[in-house]
Amino acid sequence: MTINMAATRADDRRLMVNCDREEEAIKNESISSYETVKYFNAEKYELERYVDAIKAYQKAEYKVTWGMNMMNICQALVFQTGLLAIMTLAAYEVAHGKRDVGDFVTITTYMNQLQGPLNFFGTFYRTVQQALVSGERLLELFKVKPTVVDRVIEIDGHDVKDVTIDSVRRHIGVVPQDTALFNESLMYNLKYGNPSVSDEEVYEACRAASIHDRILSFQDGYDTKVGERGLRLSGGEKQRVAIARTMLKKPKIIMLDEATSALDSETEQQIQSELITGQLGNDRTLLIIAHRLSTITHADQIIVLHAGEIVERGTHSELLAAGGKYASMWEKQHLVFGDPSEHA
């Protein structure tokens, strides 16, 4: 019962996250297109669209909360009913001399301990989401020139205070969750970060990102217009284009912010191979912000952030052996989704 209800909650949680992203997208789109909105006197329409998105998010959030409460109630009901039945039977046997009071206490204690592991299902998403938010805040430091008061941020041994923001951005490539593409051809978007690259280099990067064959299937191939913000492409296609575009920029540091979240397992494994041994990871530092821990098992170093602090650091096997927060998160993913290593 708990596993089935937890799986349903996973779907509800994904829906809530998608609604949250949709609400954020509508807000940003309305603000960035404010001139068009004014030209067509569409303020009321945009407001209604944003309110509808907020209501959809609130509805999804309600389903998540309701599902959690129902799961807790059902768990408590099942265990309390079972505990009552066993206590009644044990008390009957104690009263008739078949068991002593110590047996009664032992049986009651064991039954209470059985309920503890089920609490994992209620805390899993909150724990992973906290880790994800901490990583995304780290990524925000590099969107503008970082300014810190009593700490030092160094890149390759250089204090960021001593370098220009142009230099920082030139050597860092970012693959965000929400990929923005220009309403131009695929070739234009792929060469956007480095216009001097050759067409053959573009093809090679697209093969590494598992998007080359898909592009060739389009009627206009690499000359295909992607639409405003890439609306003519699916989420997975946009992510693969973003990965190829970042590879073509040839940065020294690549930051992947949930860069494979919209991909199927097979494509994700192909790109992971490129991350570890192929072109994308060659002579580069990779910083991966990941929701699914299976995507970072081969990392040289895994850093676990909690409440703005580094609480653990090491390889996948070292952190599992340590039995800390990372091992706990890995075990919870194993309980909900099966063995995470199967997807690695």
Structure characterization notes:
Helices cover about 60% and strands about 10% of the residues. It has 13 helices and 7 strands. Strands 3-4-5 form a 3-stranded parallel β-sheet, sandwiched between helices. The chain has a two-stranded antiparallel ribbon with strand order 1-2. Mean pLDDT is about 75; it is low at about 120-135 and about 340-344. The relative contact order is 0.08. It folds into 2 domains: about 1-115; about 130-344, Rossmann fold, CATH 3.40.50. The protein is mainly alpha-helical and about 350 residues long. It is found in: Membrane. GO terms for molecular function: ABC-type transporter activity; ATP binding; ATP hydrolysis activity. Its main location: membrane.
User: Can you tell me the CATH topology of the largest domain?
Assistant: Rossmann fold
CATH architecture of the largest domain: 3-Layer(aba) Sandwich
Helical content stands at: 55-70%
Radius of gyration: 26 Å
**Alpha-beta content class:** mainly alpha
Unreliable stretches (pLDDT < 50, length at least 5) are 121-134, 340-344
CATH C-level class of the largest domain: Alpha Beta
Tell me how many strands there are. Answer: 7
Mean pLDDT over the residues: 76
Based on CA inertia axes, which overall geometry fits?
extended
Number of helices: 13
The CATH homologous superfamily of the largest domain: P-loop containing nucleotide triphosphate hydrolases
